[in-house]
């Protein structure tokens, strides 16, 4: 039945071309419904979500057999709360995020969601529980409606429009020549950075998943876009377990918990208030470094500080 449904068929075609092309991970992250390549364990069970608490327990990981990128990483992202990952570039923040939907598996240790080891649940059920918003949203060839529907192939038009409204995208979509049917991508209309981000947030919202993984954009948007994107993100984050790679100081300060990473290890964790006053703490040093010019638009690329 699903295959008779046009967007699903299109998604299946996309899957094939993605597998062939070995495209970059960022693009795959946004389309979490892609069929996992490795089969589930014979005894895999569907993930049962209660409050969607994520726990890393002594997780070790390397991209090859002879490198170790993450060294015994342990932390808990509480259900319904926002956990910010901060730290210098190359610390392993994106790697941590990529282990949650099981794009890679740890070499040692375990990752639990509501107490269930994710290695023991079906990948389909795991990925159904997760939405991802990347730093540089990818738009596929197709209409605006198609691009939001990639978040969930069986979403109705009404659900797509609702997601777009919550992502503060509905109004600019209606202002396009063909509204939701306007083609985007290489042969379509050009959208601004802020508009693309809001489409990507709408794509995440239409999944209605309990877990949101967010790689905050580092590129500066104009003030108006910045505010619209921030409102859309606030909407997306509310009531979900959020793990955010935070580049904006405002996100870090508001997070329920901050995990500070350096060279593949968690070196500190706590709230902004607690970490900022810790003597000789890495976070306090990064924070002081940034303080004289701190502002909502500050990025790690501008400061080199990673927060
Ligand atoms: P961060 O997000 O904190 O900047 P990353 O998780 O992207 O850090 O990277 C951590 C380390 O892993 C870096 O040394 C990086 O070069 C390496 N790395 C990241 N992705 C890959 C990959 N796909 N293959 C091999 N090494 C990678
Ligand atoms: Mg990164």
**Tell me about the biggest sheet?**
6 strands, mixed
Proportion of helical residues: 25-40%
Oligomer: single chain
Strand content: 15-25%
Instruction: Write the H/E string, N to C.
Output: HHEEEHEEHEEHHHEHEHEHEEHHH
Strands of the widest sheet, in order across it, are 6-9-10-3-11-12
pLDDT < 50 runs, ≥5 residues = 1-5, 16-27, 292-307
Shape: globular
Mean pLDDT: 84
List the helices and strands and how they pair.
Layout: H1 6-21, H2 25-30, E1 54-61, E2 70-77, E3 82-86, H3 93-99, E4 108-113, E5 116-117, H4 123-128, E6 130-133, E7 142-143, H5 144-149, H6 157-166, H7 170-174, E8 183-184, H8 193-207, E9 211-215, H9 223-237, E10 241-245, H10 249-254, E11 257-262, E12 265-270, H11 272-276, H12 282-290, H13 300-303
Parallel strand pairs: 3-10, 3-11, 6-9, 9-10
Antiparallel strand pairs: 1-2, 1-4, 4-5, 7-8, 11-12
Helix pairs in contact: 6-8, 8-9
Bound molecules: adenosine-5'-diphosphate and magnesium ion (MG).
Structure description:
It is a single chain. The protein starts with 5 loop residues before the first helix and ends with a helix. Helix content is 36%, strand content 19%. The chain contains 13 helices and twelve strands. It has helices at residues 6-21, 25-30, 93-99, 123-128, 144-149, 157-166, 170-174, 193-207, 223-237, 249-254, 272-276, 282-290, 300-303; strands at 54-61, 70-77, 82-86, 108-113, 116-117, 130-133, 142-143, 183-184, 211-215, 241-245, 257-262, 265-270. Helix 9 (223-237) links the parallel strand 9 and strand 10 (241-245). The protein is of the alpha/beta class. A six-stranded mixed β-sheet has the order 6-9-10-3-11-12, with helices on both faces. It binds adenosine-5'-diphosphate and magnesium ion (MG). Adenosine-5'-diphosphate binds next to helix 3.
